[in-house]
Amino acid sequence: MSTTTSTTTNDENKRPSFWGAIIGIGFLCFMMFAQIFLLGEDWVTHISLIFAIVVCAIIALYSGFSWQDVQKGILYGCEIAMLPMLILMMVGVLVASWIASGTIPSLIYYGLQLINPSYFLVTAVIVCAVASLVTGSSWTTAATFGVAFIGIGSGLGISPAMTAGAVISGAIFGDKISPVSDSTNLAAGVAEANLFDHIRSMFYTTGPALIITIILFFFIGMRFDGEGADISRTAELLAGIRENYSVGLLAFLPPLVVVVLAYRRINALAVMVIGSLLGAGLAVATQGVGLGSMMNYMNYGYVSETGVEAVDSLLSRGGLQGMMWTISLGFIGLSLGGLLEKTRMLEVLLEKMGKLVSNSRGLIVTHVVSSLATNLFSASQYIAIIIPGRMFVPAYRKLKILPSVCSRTCEDSATVTSPLVPWGLGGAYYMGVLGVSAWDYMGWTFLAIITPVIAILYGLFNICIWREGERNDVNTYNQPYTESLPQAELAK
């Protein structure tokens, strides 16, 4: 018995020094900087992360952890990545089947005719926000409406990076305030807030951020008045799609089914499988695609062979194998995140930041910065919600700040910035689905940039930082918390 107690105590006392944690995180930052600015390679993130894992493992071993501890941390990260990466595999299959079925070609065909170029970016934000709000899933929105908007934008002569920024801005807004979103429920549970108190609180930060985002995209979109678009290329796209695909209302059946299933909270992996099979069946039945060819497309990606370069370059994509670059990045990124969490490097750094929370200004700013840093180094918005959130709850309680402020800050910093981390789950997913590098679209993802800034400004100027008795919230820290902490699905 004494041996067991001693072992447990020793295990709990294992932790790297502050400078050890700084060296590990600093090396990761250096590798990312060198990769982009010194080597000029923005697609070799995998190798940079592997080097960072090696350095962090050495620091952990030097700090008293065993190789088994290091390996457990890496495998823990892989376990977190498993379900999202399985979903990502099926997204590749879904995209290929929806191109072959005429679904994506039909969305592009009608979108090019109906959407005014001047309002295209604003339309992308609003449509994706509504779709994500209804389904509670930014990932489903990106894989369906997002892919179509990328195609439409290309036909209108609008940069894919700009379109991706609009799509992601809308998608994460709807996801962030949807009562059926896993991240929304998780943040409320972590902060001990009532779900609808949490959503109501988020409107004060995310609402202004969305309005500013729409205004920015409105003025940017005015550059695309139709004259700036390549009309001949648009006409070529329309003719190429019309002559080679059976476009019509029936092609909209797969995305309609996916939206309904997602809204009904059917498992995300099951939704992707059903959507893929429905698209494949439609391709065989209406597009004349053979079963063998369809299976080949779903594995290796659809290859458009219309002879029209604009159509072929736009519609040759998807497939299970086409997602492997992104999937491997997700596993490596989460391996590093799991290692940093289980060897307590993140904990050591956050404890240093925790000394800055003696007042509301320092608390909000520290919480935002901590979540941003955790998102950056753990590659997971879920870890970025849970670890800083639970760490700072006592500080919110001590200052009598409502739980809905804490939960809102979790999302203002962790959820919205996830797509901006190229090696994180969100960044890897959007890069894989939309085919645009995170390094390219991050400057256009206005909502993800503006929301944390608003949260910090609110903290600095004590705006909407409600204390107990100042707002009629259901839950306060003086009341027992009755709602159970939801199980994160670890996937959008």
Give a description of the structure.
The chain has helices at 2-13, 18-38, 45-62, 67-100, 103-114, 120-135, 138-155, 160-177, 182-190, 195-221, 231-244, 253-263, 268-286, 291-300, 309-315, 324-342, 345-353, 360-378, 381-398, 403-415, 425-434, 438-441, 446-460. The two termini are 45 Å apart. The chain is globular, with a radius of gyration of 23 Å. Helix 16 (324-342) packs antiparallel against helix 21. With 492 residues, it is mainly alpha-helical. Residues 1-10 and 480-492 have low confidence and may be disordered. It contains 23 helices and no strands.
Write the layout of secondary structure elements.
Layout lengths: L1 H12 L4 H21 L6 H18 L4 H34 L2 H12 L5 H16 L2 H18 L4 H18 L4 H9 L4 H27 L9 H14 L8 H11 L4 H19 L4 H10 L8 H7 L8 H19 L2 H9 L6 H19 L2 H18 L4 H13 L9 H10 L3 H4 L4 H15 L32
Helix pairs in contact: 2-3, 2-17, 3-16, 4-13, 4-14, 4-16, 4-21, 5-7, 5-11, 6-7, 6-8, 6-10, 7-8, 7-21, 8-10, 9-19, 9-20, 10-20, 10-23, 12-13, 16-21, 18-19, 18-20, 18-23, 19-20
Question: How would you summarize what this structure contains?
Answer:
The chain has 492 residues and is mainly α.
By DSSP, the count of extended strands is 0
Biggest sheet features: none
**SS strand fraction:** under 5%
Percentage of residues assigned to helices: over 70%
Spans of at least 5 consecutive residues whose pLDDT stays below 50 are 1-10, 480-492
Coarse morphology: globular
Number of helices: 23
Structural class: mainly alpha
Write down the overall mean pLDDT.
84
Ends apart, CA distance between termini: 45 Å
- Give Rg in angstroms: 23 Å
User: What are the secondary-structure elements, in order, as H or E?
Assistant: HHHHHHHHHHHHHHHHHHHHHHH
